[in-house]
Write a structure and sequence with these properties.
By secondary structure, the chain is an all-alpha fold.
Length: 307
């Protein structure tokens, strides 16, 4: 039996992907873009934590297959499409087939934008066929695998989950500061993102989104803390392991921003009709939008240039 979808969760996905589209479209909206950049990735991990169902009887292999169908099949499918398109366009039709023509396959397998931090003097860039945003799918996959292991250790108990998650967060910090490269499939980022999954679990278990919605003054304080801490922490980019001034501080900022995004989504569901319906539709199609929006931007830009 299919689970009943919670509409405001779909709306939250839509808000997150809209921020992605704005940022990647180069549209500068000042504080709106900056603050949106603080939560547009964490909110997807938080939502994944909220929808995560722990089943002690479910085997590891079964879980991996289920998540692979959901995340890895579209990852490799969309990346194969992009690879073939640019291979045919830039190499085959141009008669310039070489070893460089198949290098994007290395990026697809490594699933990371670059080998070192983005500002490294000598860097190796992998995902150069407008597929950089697809890192999120493999990153989320690895995060869920780690999270499954933590839930297994904690036997589904929240208190034990907090303890083992603390150890993983410490490991994430150590890897970030002492590992010179960005690990494949965003393993380093996945160790960090597990904490966002855990926050989503807390929100779900205690119905905090629904409860805090009834307390506008508390939400105002949350918003004030989020804005203040965001500017203290500075710009972030999880895809290339940029967390601002502090990984721990950004964890707080990401959680607060995600919570506010969820509260706004609940408001839109309750008080709007057309907007909420449009957002629900978009929220249910975030994967193709995430994987193909840079390609669409490029096609549209080319057509406009020709006109």
């Amino acid at each position: 039996m299919e689970k009943q979808r919670i509409l405001w969760m779909d709306i939250a996905k839509a808000l997150g992907i809209l921020i992605v589209l704005i940022v990647h479209g180069g549209i500068g909206l000042g504080p709106v873009t900056f603050l949106g950049g603080m939560f547009y990735m964490p909110v997807f991990f938080v939502l994944a934590g909220m929808t995560f169902t722990w089943k002690e009887e479910e085997g590891f292999g079964t879980f991996v297959k289920k998540k692979a169908r959901r995340l890895l099949v579209p990852y490799f499918g969309y990346n194969l499409f992009l690879f073939l398109f640019f291979f045919i366009k830039d190499s085959l039709l141009a008669g310039r087939v070489s070893s460089e023509s198949v290098f994007p396959l290395v990026g697809i397998l490594y699933s990371r934008n670059c080998l070192f931090e983005i500002d490294a003097v000598h860097n190796l860039y992998f995902m150069q066929i407008l597929n950089a945003p697809t890192w999120f799918l493999t990153g989320l996959f690895v995060s869920l695998i780690i999270y499954w292991g933590l839930m297994k250790l904690a036997k589904g108990e929240l208190c034990k989950l907090y303890i083992v998650n603390g150890g993983v967060l410490l490991l994430a910090v150590l890897v970030h500061y002492f590992c010179p490269i960005l690990l494949p499939w965003s393993i380093d980022c996945a160790l960090y993102s597990v904490s966002f999954l855990g926050f989503g679990k807390v929100l779900k278990e205690h119905h905090l989104v629904e409860e805090l919605y009834k307390k506008p003054l508390v939400l105002l304080l949350v918003a004030a803390a989020f804005i203040f801490l965001s500017f203290v922490n500075g710009s972030v980019n999880m895809s290339v392991a940029e967390y601002g001034s502090s990984m721990v501080l950004y964890l707080i900022v990401g959680c607060l921003g995600s919570l506010l995004c969820l509260e706004l989504s609940l408001f839109l569901e309750k008080h709007t009709r057309f907007v909420s319906k449009a957002c629900v539709w978009l929220g249910r199609h975030t994967v193709p939008v995430l994987c193909l929006h840079l390609f669409v931007y490029s096609v549209v830009g080319t057509l406009l240039g020709m006109i």
